[in-house]
């Protein structure tokens, strides 16, 4: 009897879901960058397809052209993407230019609370204006710049002894950016197992956002501020403060004494390649690469360690990465897209997202007692997410990014002028952008 | 007897139209045939040019369609011509143009001279030599990026094999002094065969009878080279210089793949800079003025050069 009843219920459920599917099945396109987590999302989304009956398509664009391609798509009101996992800095433009659907009512109606997510990710990925409860995205992928190091090299007795003799302290995870530079210098040009290795792979790329995402990890910790905390868009003396100049000089010195020769235009991919191929002792990179490092046969399985961006003279911060998922306002399938967000926000889906290599920003996942020990890099991820700062998220973010890329790259890599010149020039460029925007 | 297709078409043409066509002059019919091409040329060449000139006097930004467009007169032109960064870019372009053309003409002509002599395997060598120019510039850029890698690149190993030292001691694309030469070497590798082919055509156009007459006059090979080969191949050499000059003035893909314009602005050529201004910074009015300046420069130089080329051909 019980079996018969279950069969009837199951048949009814299948029929009902089949009918609803037949009536509402949509082809949804999700746009994101082409990288490892995107493959994990394809895997994860199969559950959504199965449950909802909707068909998911994906448009993944390499990072170096991701912003160009997707911002053009949004600015032209294109209907390619129903769902967009856009970079954190796009949120201002997405909101003010009407590209993203405001999600407050949807969240309220479906019991999705932003209190359930890591606060930094809510501020960074979802809110516009910042620190106001206006949500245009659900935190989708928490990410932050951190460091990976060759634990197996750091543990070698002969290297430990030599380092101690040279620097008077143990070779280990650096407590400050100054110590990090010492370690990079120590490994620079060193012969390890018959191969010449180098100190640290850092971001120097000029074409998209690379060097900005790298240098800010030094600038923030030396006292750089984007603006006067008491007066928005007041830049002079904050962007180019004495501390900021010192931070920029530090980054150039790190590049000069500790980066591999020829690393003049490196970003995520080049850093990963240099590290995996055993060229460098440390690499700066976003946390998304850590699952791949652990799985790598050359540098994984305990050979690598992870640490958050070390402190500087005025504090300890790290550059925020990561993205929120938004519904594109030009989509004609907004209901189905919202359905996807509702599904994605579920704790069990978020838990599976972490298992597959996606960095969930849901507190229920990251605050679970087992989380910190679930992966060798999990604790570092948590520590790093607690110290994040982000680049401008203004609608004119692209206009603000380009001069920073130019000024910083030209000083750090090409040695043009001084750090003070570079940051003074940056202030002039940014003031011009804000004047054009009518904010000054 | 079967009617030809033309006759059939004529038979099927409605009387009204047939009468009108019969009344047209040859000149009118010619205009009817040429009109679509003229219309297309106006639409895709002339109109955009005029529109660009118009935009160059405004502050228009294509990514801000709602912002009021102001007429700024010659301000964009003044800013460009007084911008030291743009002059640096012009210098980088001139450096690239001068050295690529010089080296490619020298090597290309030398190769053509060798290939022009009949020897076993001549055709095979010609095919092997022209192989690089069959590749996509983007592929060549990527390929040379790997060759120039200080740690794993073949280029550094070859250089240090002859000079000694560690291959990682220098970085072709990461060094502000070497990067301009890195792009020149890659471009030369790719496009010298093109120059060689043009020179080869020039050399093969010289009648053997002239050399035979010179032999009869007991002219040395050296004298034959300077008084017959070079003067008669000169129009072809000049043509090669013109083609390579125009091509390299707009060089973009190879350099972007290789250095991205860096380190710093060292290898930022005008076309790369213009693309950044127009499609990264979205300063449409400013970049239109920039494009007009470049257009006038190239057009002016090319016109002078073509006149000189025609004079040489007429000799």
UniProtKB/TrEMBL annotation, chain A:
Mind listing the UniProt keywords for this protein, alphabetically?
A: Signal, Transport
Q: Which InterPro entries match?
A: Bact_solute-bd_prot1 (IPR050490), SBP (IPR006059)
* One Pfam family linked to the record: SBP_bac_1
* Nucleus is among the record's keywords: no
Q: What is its main location?
A: periplasm
The source's superkingdom equals Bacteria
Tell where it localizes: Periplasm
Q: What's in the GO CC field?
A: periplasmic space
Which residues are the signal sequence here?
1-25
Entry similarity comment? Belongs to the bacterial solute-binding protein 1 family.
For this entry, the protein name equals Carbohydrate ABC transporter substrate-binding protein, CUT1 family
Which taxonomic lineage is given here?
Answer: Bacteria, Pseudomonadati, Pseudomonadota, Alphaproteobacteria, Rhodobacterales
UniProtKB/TrEMBL annotation, chain B:
InterPro entries per the record? MalF_N (IPR035277), MetI-like (IPR000515), MetI-like_sf (IPR035906), Sugar_ABC_transporter (IPR052730)
Kindly give the Gene3D superfamilies that the UniProt entry links to this protein: MalF N-terminal region-like, MetI-like
The scientific name of the source species is Cognatiyoonia sediminum
The record, for PROSITE patterns, names: ABC_TM1 (PS50928)
Q: Domain named ABC transmembrane type-1: which ranges?
A: 90-305
Name any GO cellular component annotation.
plasma membrane
Its recorded name reads: Carbohydrate ABC transporter membrane protein 1, CUT1 family
Keyword Calcium (UniProt): no
Q: Does the keyword Transmembrane apply?
A: yes
Q: Which SUPFAM superfamilies match?
A: MalF N-terminal region-like, MetI-like
């Amino acid at each position: 009897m019980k079996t018969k009843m279950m069969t009837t219920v199951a048949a009814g459920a299948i029929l009902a879901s089949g009918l609803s599917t037949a009536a509402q099945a949509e082809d949804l396109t999700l746009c994101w960058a082409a990288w490892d987590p995107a493959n994990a999302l394809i895997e994860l989304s199969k559950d959504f397809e199965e449950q909802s009956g909707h068909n998911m398509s994906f448009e993944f664009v390499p990072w170096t052209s991701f912003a160009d391609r997707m911002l053009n798509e949004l600015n032209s009101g294109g209907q390619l993407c129903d769902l967009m996992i856009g970079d954190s800095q796009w949120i201002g433009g997405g909101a003010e230019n009407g590209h993203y659907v405001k999600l407050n009512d949807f969240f309220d109606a479906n019991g999705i609370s932003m209190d359930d997510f890591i606060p930094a990710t809510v501020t960074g990925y979802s809110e516009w204006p910042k620190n106001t409860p206006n949500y245009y995205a659900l935190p989708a992928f928490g990410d932050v710049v951190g460091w990976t190091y060759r634990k197996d090299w750091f543990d070698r007795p002969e290297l430990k002894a030599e380092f101690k003799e040279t620097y008077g302290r143990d070779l280990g995870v650096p407590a400050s950016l100054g110590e990090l530079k010492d370690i990079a210098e120590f490994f620079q040009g060193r012969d390890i197992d018959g191969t010449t290795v180098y100190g640290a792979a850092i971001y120097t790329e000029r074409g998209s956002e690379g060097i900005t995402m790298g240098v800010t990890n030094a600038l923030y910790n030396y006292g750089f501020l984007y603006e006067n905390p008491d007066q928005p868009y007041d830049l002079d003396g904050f962007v180019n403060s004495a501390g900021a100049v010192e931070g920029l000089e530090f980054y150039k010195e790190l590049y000069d004494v500790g980066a591999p020769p020829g690393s003049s235009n490196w970003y995520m991919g080049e850093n990963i390649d240099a590290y995996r191929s055993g060229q460098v002792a440390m690499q700066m990179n976003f946390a998304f690469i850590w699952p791949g490092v652990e799985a790598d046969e050359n540098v994984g399985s305990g050979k690598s360690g992870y640490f958050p961006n070390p402190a500087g003279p005025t504090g300890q911060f790290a550059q925020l990465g990561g993205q929120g998922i938004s519904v594109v306002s030009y989509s004609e399938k907004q209901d189905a897209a919202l359905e996807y967000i509702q599904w994605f926000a579920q704790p069990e889906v978020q838990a599976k997202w972490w298992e597959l290599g996606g960095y969930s920003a849901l507190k229920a996942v990251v605050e679970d007692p087992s989380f910190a020990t679930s992966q060798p890099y999990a604790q570092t991820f948590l520590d790093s997410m607690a110290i994040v700062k982000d680049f401008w998220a203004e609608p004119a973010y692209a206009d603000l990014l380009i001069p920073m890329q130019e000024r910083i790259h030209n000083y750090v890599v090409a040695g043009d002028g001084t750090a003070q010149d570079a940051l003074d020039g940056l202030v002039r460029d940014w003031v011009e952008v804000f004047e054009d925007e009518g904010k000054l | 007897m079967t009617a030809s297709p033309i006759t059939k078409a004529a038979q099927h043409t409605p009387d009204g139209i047939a009468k009108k066509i019969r009344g047209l002059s040859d000149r009118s019919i010619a205009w009817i045939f040429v009109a679509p091409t003229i219309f297309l040329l106006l639409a895709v060449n002339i109109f955009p040019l005029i529109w660009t000139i118009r935009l160059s006097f405004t502050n228009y930004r294509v990514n801000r369609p709602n912002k009021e467009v102001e007429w700024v007169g010659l301000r964009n032109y003044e800013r460009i011509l007084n911008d030291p960064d743009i002059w640096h870019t012009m210098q980088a372009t001139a450096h690239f143009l001068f050295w690529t053309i010089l080296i490619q003409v020298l090597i290309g002509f030398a190769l053509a001279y060798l290939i022009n002599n009949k020897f076993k395997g001549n055709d095979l060598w010609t095919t092997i030599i022209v192989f690089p120019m069959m590749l996509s510039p983007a592929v060549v850029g990527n390929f040379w990026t790997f060759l120039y890698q200080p740690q794993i690149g073949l280029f550094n190993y070859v250089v240090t094999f002859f000079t000694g030292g560690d291959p990682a001691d220098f970085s072709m694309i990461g060094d502000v002094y070497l990067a301009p030469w890195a792009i020149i070497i890659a471009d030369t590798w790719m496009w010298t065969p093109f120059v060689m082919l043009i020179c080869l055509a020039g050399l093969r156009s010289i009648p053997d009878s002239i050399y035979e007459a010179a032999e009869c006059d007991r002219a040395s090979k050296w004298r034959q080279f300077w008084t017959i080969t070079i003067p008669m191949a000169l129009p072809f050499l000049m043509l090669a210089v013109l083609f390579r000059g125009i091509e390299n003035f707009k060089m973009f893909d190879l350099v972007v793949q290789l250095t991205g314009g860096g380190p710093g602005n060292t290898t930022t050529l005008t076309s790369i800079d213009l693309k950044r201004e127009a499609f990264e910074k979205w300063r449409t009015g400013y970049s239109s003025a920039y494009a007009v300046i470049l257009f006038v420069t190239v057009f002016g130089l090319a016109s002078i050069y073509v006149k000189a080329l025609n004079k040489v051909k007429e000799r």
